[in-house]
């Protein structure tokens, strides 16, 4: 690898890590705005989206430029391909954080609506999954990536529990149907953020091992494989 390419890759890595930080904070603020009924936090999330969109385009253009100019091979090429994919997942996560923030603002009109306790547990698990998947990418750690993928099953289960609870609330009191739908959507957005964190973790395993693990999660749950 030439020194020029090495320097450009390092600059790109720094830009991507900054994007990680912004998106991670947006998700945390969005779920706090939902759980704590803080519309001020929801507004901050929505205001941050334009920064993420601008960085998304900048990072993608830089990746394409480096691929065209330097025609990297092996690990460098794989890393750049992963950056393009991860960058896209981050932009979608930011959009979902904005969707949650919008739902939080709508729910604020119903201060007495009982948000299921299980949603708070789901928020904690989703935040943890996102953090582990981003750490895994920065550290190129396939074991952490596998750990994040395992959390997705737990979050899917929590989502089903929350939806069941919301169905019960809405059947019991028709006046709560509208806030129930807002809460329902927020839960689905959280579950989707977890899916995107799972995609990033799959990209990490491809980056480290050169192995495509989509649709093969049963195999990567084997700790021996993860530690290769």
TrEMBL record:
Which keywords accompany this UniProt record? Cytoplasm, Phosphate transport, Transport
What's any GO biological process attached to this entry? Answer: negative regulation of phosphate metabolic process
| Cellular component GO terms, alphabetical | cytoplasm
One Pfam family cited in the UniProt record for this chain: PhoU
> Which InterPro entries did the record assign?
PhoU, PhoU-like_sf, PhoU_dom
Tell me the ranges covered by the PhoU domain, including all copies.
20-103, 119-204
Q: Which residues form a coiled coil?
A: none
Compartments (UniProt record): Cytoplasm
Record's function text? Plays a role in the regulation of phosphate uptake.
Task: Report the sequence similarity comment from the record.
Answer: Belongs to the PhoU family.
Assembly description: Homodimer.
Q: Can you name this protein? A: Phosphate-specific transport system accessory protein PhoU
Which organism does this sequence originate in?
Rubripirellula tenax
């Amino acid at each position: 690898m030439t020194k020029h390419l090495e320097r450009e890759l390092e600059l790109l890595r720094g830009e991507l890590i900054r994007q990680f930080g912004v998106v991670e904070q947006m998700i945390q603020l969005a779920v706090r705005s939902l759980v704590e009924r803080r519309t001020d936090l929801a507004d901050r999330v929505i205001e941050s989206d334009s920064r993420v969109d601008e960085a998304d385009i900048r990072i993608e253009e830089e990746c394409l430029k480096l691929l065209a100019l330097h025609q990297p091979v092996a690990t460098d090429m794989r890393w750049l391909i992963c950056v393009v994919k991860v960058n896209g997942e981050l932009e979608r996560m930011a959009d979902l954080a904005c969707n949650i923030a919008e739902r939080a603002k709508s729910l604020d009109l119903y201060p007495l609506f009982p948000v299921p306790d299980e949603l708070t547990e789901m928020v904690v698990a989703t935040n943890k999954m996102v953090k582990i998947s981003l750490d895994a990418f920065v550290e190129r750690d396939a074991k952490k990536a596998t750990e994040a993928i395992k959390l997705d099953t737990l979050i899917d289960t929590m989502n089903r529990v929350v939806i069941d609870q919301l169905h019960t609330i809405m059947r019991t009191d028709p006046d709560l149907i509208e806030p129930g739908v807002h809460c329902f959507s927020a839960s689905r957005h959280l579950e989707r953020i977890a899916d995107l964190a799972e995609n990033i973790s799959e990209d990490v395993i491809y980056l480290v091992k050169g192995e495509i693990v989509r649709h093969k999660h049963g195999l990567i749950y084997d700790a021996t494989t993860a530690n290769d």
